[in-house]
Design brief:
Blueprint lengths: L14 H23 L9 E5 L8 H14 L4 E6 L5 H10 L3 E4 L2 H10 L4 E5 L11 E7 L27 E5 L4 H14 L2 E7 L4 E7 L14 E2 L5 H9 L2 H9 L14 H14 L2 E4 L6 E9 L5 E10 L5 H6 L1 H16 L3
Parallel strand pairs: 1-4, 1-5, 2-3, 2-4, 5-6
Antiparallel strand pairs: 7-8, 7-12, 8-9, 10-11, 11-12
Helix pairs in contact: 5-10, 6-8
């Protein structure tokens, strides 16, 4: 279905969006009320939701088909569930021609029930992230690299169906589109300069996630693969993120955490962690001094968007046999300058 997207949805701080902001706030209030009033239903089979918060195409249907095919390789019998819309006939045909396991109904819950009756053992919701009546076992949120979140505002001031904070209730985020070669080259250039493994790390609900990295050429290195999820409280990138929060939000988040000890140097007391985060907020970088893993040191700096909001952390780490805290700090300026260049290439409006 073709959706007309006004140009102001992609422009930050534009007058039209600001004028529509009160309407957006009112609609989001209605959504919150709807969430509270909607009863959530569980099903006999696990439910995987492929959704989005950006209005329009983000690659949900192709991903649903891909997951269905992969599940079949593991002897599963997946059903793709879609809410019936007559204008979505092209998507229906695409699914039927690819995997032939589509269940349609004006109510997704009824389609899942139909799939259960026919002995399907996994339900894949193609869209439905905003269907609060269905309990999901796994949420996968899709974005398109060409638009990402637009101006970051919700409808009608912007293109988002709900606030970006909705990411907190998802377990996997996928960005569809071409690889950003400029971004990859910049990460490689940083690694060449610091001579250690460089990581681009983003916050998720349960910790920091390594979404890109360049490995050092050293034979002896500590490997944390792409997709690794690490704690907030004992990693340089995690502390970088926590320090970006307001003191009130920072305190609330830490009070909700389990400050588990990973080494004898891990912060296990809220007071000592909060004290360090206050210093991190002032100095603009964070260190991991063997707090996450014995024998590993790391340093991280924030990558901020156009509004100065934390978007990711840029970090490098290495074994203590080769890198000390002093060595890491000596290369801090390389990271800080690189973080600014990455932000310019990722969030430039030009």
């Amino acid at each position: 279905m073709k959706i007309h997207k006004p140009k102001f949805w992609e422009k930050n701080n534009n007058l039209i969006s600001l004028l529509l902001l009160p309407v957006s706030c009112f609609l989001q209030l209605l959504i919150k009320i709807k969430k509270r009033l909607t009863s959530e239903h569980s099903f006999k089979i696990p439910v995987i939701c492929i959704g989005n918060i950006y209005l329009g195409g983000t690659g949900k249907t192709p991903l649903s088909i891909l997951i269905a095919k992969e599940l079949r390789k593991h002897n599963k019998k997946p059903a793709i569930i879609k809410k019936y819309y007559s204008e979505h006939i092209d998507e229906h045909n695409l699914i039927n021609n690819s995997v032939d396991c589509l269940f349609l109904n004006k109510k997704r819950s009824k389609a899942i029930n139909d799939a259960e009756k026919k002995q399907y053992d996994v339900a894949i919701l193609d869209d439905g992230f905003q269907d609060y009546s269905i309990k999901k076992d796994l949420n996968i949120l899709c974005f398109n690299s060409n638009q990402l979140i637009g101006n970051g505002m919700t409808l009608p001031a912007g293109p988002l169906r709900e606030n970006i904070n909705a990411i907190k209730k998802t377990q996997i985020v996928i960005i569809n589109g071409n690889k950003n070669k400029l971004f990859e080259d910049q990460i490689l250039n940083i690694s060449n300069k610091v001579k250690e493994t460089v990581n681009f790390v983003v916050p998720e609900a349960s910790g920091m996630n390594y979404i890109d990295r360049v490995e050092t050429d050293w034979a002896f290195r500590i490997q944390l693969p792409i997709g690794t999820n690490v704690p907030f409280h004992c990693t340089a990138s995690g502390k970088c993120f926590l320090a970006s929060l307001t003191p009130k939000k920072r305190l609330a988040m830490i009070q909700a955490m389990d400050l588990n000890a990973h080494t004898k140097r891990t912060h296990v007391k809220q007071e000592t962690l909060l004290s360090e985060l206050k210093q991190v907020s002032k100095q603009g970088y964070a260190l991991d001094q063997e707090e996450f893993m014995d024998g590993m040191v790391a340093i991280a700096v924030p990558v901020n968007d156009n509004h100065g909001r934390f978007a990711a952390a840029l970090a490098f780490h290495g074994p203590t046999q080769r890198i000390s805290v002093e060595n890491a700090l000596a290369r801090k300026d390389i990271l800080t300058k690189a973080a600014k260049q990455l932000a310019d290439s990722l969030f430039s409006e030009g």
